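G., the chain you wanted modeled:
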Amino acid sequence: MRVTGCSVQNKKVLSKVQNNWLLYIAAFACAFAIALFCTPFAKKLSVKFKAIDYPKKRGIHKEPIPRMGGVAIVLSFLASTAIIMPFVKEMRDPQFYGFIVGALIIAITGALDDIFGLRPRAKLAMQIVVSLIVIYSGTRIDFIMWPELIRFEALSAPITMFWIIGIINAVNLIDGLDGLAAGVSSISALCIMIMCIISGNQPAAVLAAMLAGSCFGFLPRNFNPAEVFMGDIGALFLGYVLAVSSIIGLFKSYALLAVVITGFAIALPIFDTAFAMVRRVAQGKPIMRADRGHLHHRLIDAGISHVKAVIILYAVSLVCGIIAIAIALKDVRALLVMTVFVIIMALMIFVYKKRT
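Predicted structure as tokens:
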């Protein structure tokens, strides 16, 4: 029987998964267990440092809630990294060490913001610092191939910086409902993990697996009604890891359509942030000023319950991730699905705009 090109590709994918599945499961399970164990500790730490989220006008909750739960996500990810590192040689080179240094700095920045309340300029400055550390340790977007090979040359550093800072703030901006940022980040991380497994990029797949495990371990106490919020330490850290792992795993492995694939893998934060920026500019408001115009706020204002709004946004994120995976597998049917989904999203924007 003749073996088609598609069959050969599927066999290669299956072989890669079989060779490393224990590693990916171990990375996920390790991060999950540590996050589950550390979340109560993070809650107590929040109270000790008086990192409490008090009720506010644009908020959802009516009672004070500890807001530094992201400590559990950071600790579980870093501890899992230390455990898994001996088994992945690529995780012991200067490029990876630069990633870890940046992760520590962004986590400290988030913690300081949760405790003392940093100015937006100070947070942006630290995001620039961690981006430069990542870039000059060897992780950068050098080129894309859409439709032809485009090398960024001198623009490589600023484009990479824009991507990292953009994703960090995108995740931070969607952290407005119980379990939303953690759930969406875990879905995005799982999609990135699957695509990295398909392409054979082991280090990025391991990073994504650990991030997903950390989020899932944190979710039981963060889903509505939340006992603890992840705070800026969690949101900034999640955005940072998603941004860097996508550069290592997707931009390097999927030169063709890298922008499309990566964009769909992390679609909800990107879409919501872009829409918020356009809306604020059109209204003559500062881009960084918080408002109730985000998708999750609009769903709540439309009369949808807290839990249902989060589940709807989970579903949107999951569909985007499935589209990304389908495109990565070079399934032509994904193009049709993608077109239909974009049309639906455009109609959603139009409807929500009419309601406000």
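Residues 17-266 form one domain.

Shout if anything looks off.
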